[in-house]
Amino acid sequence: MRRGHDRVSQLVLRSVVADDEPQFLELARKSAEFHHPWVELPRTPQVFASYLARSDQVSAACMVLTHRDQGDLVGMININGIVRGPYQRGLLGYAAFLPYAGQGYMSAGVALAVHHAFEVMGLNRLEADVQPGNAASRALVRLLGFRREGLSPGFIRIGGVWRDHERWAITADMPLPLAREDEGLD
Questions:
Q1: Is residue 35 one of the residues assigned to a domain?
Q2: What residue numbers bound the domain in which 174 lies?
């Protein structure tokens, strides 16, 4: 976690806003091949508008990770499917934009999102569904202290194909990743 933790001071995690659309769409298009077949990001104005609309901070929190100095979008992080009441849980999704992938930014950003989910949103559990062949994503959740809870065959439809996913989770009572809320969250 050292490299990712060193990146925390360089990053800001904030809600996605309409002004992010041009840069977000450009980076999503440039990163599409890199993300295939793991995730499909909004790449058209219509899909971005739907993405922005579902980020109501109640059932979903859609965020972008930005470089503090340059303001560049580094990646996106979502907490989807938020369920309150006795569950207090959400589903974590994340993706780096090229050229920032593989540099420790996403481990720092996801650590910030975990702290945000537990300390600001009051969630007790975050789940991450990861395709078994996605070595980078599996390494990220493992590094951040998520535990593997099982495999769900044909779990999520991505690119028209029902794909198997490993279920990973972290709860508020587990050791949290090294990131502090006041170091990178706006």
A1: yes
A2: 2-181
Asked whether residue 65 is domain-assigned, the answer is yes
The residue ranking higher by pLDDT, 175 or 25, is 25
CB atoms under 10 Å from CB of 159, counted, come to 11
pLDDT in tens, 139-154: 999 999 999 999 999 9
Other CB atoms closer than 10 Å to residue 6's CB: what's the count?
12
As a whole number of angstroms, the distance between CA 47 and CA 63 comes to 16
Question: What's 72's DSSP letter?
Answer: -
Q: What CATH number does the domain containing 115 carry?
A: 3.40.630.30
Compute the Cα dihedral for 93, 97, 99, 105 and give only its sign. Answer: negative
Q: Answer whether residue 32 is part of any domain.
A: yes
Cβ(55)–Cβ(44) under 8 Å? no
Q: Does 1 score more than 50 pLDDT?
A: no
Please give the Cα distance from 34 to 121 (Å, whole number).
31
Number of domains in the chain: 1
pLDDT in the model for residue 3: 43
**Beta-bridge partners for 163:** 156
| Inside any domain, residue 57 | yes
- Give helix then strand counts, H and E, for the chain: 6, 7
Q: pLDDT for 19-64, tens place per residue?
A: 999 999 999 999 888 887 787 888 899 999 999 999 998 899 999 9
Backbone angles phi, psi at 48, to 5 degrees: -65, -40
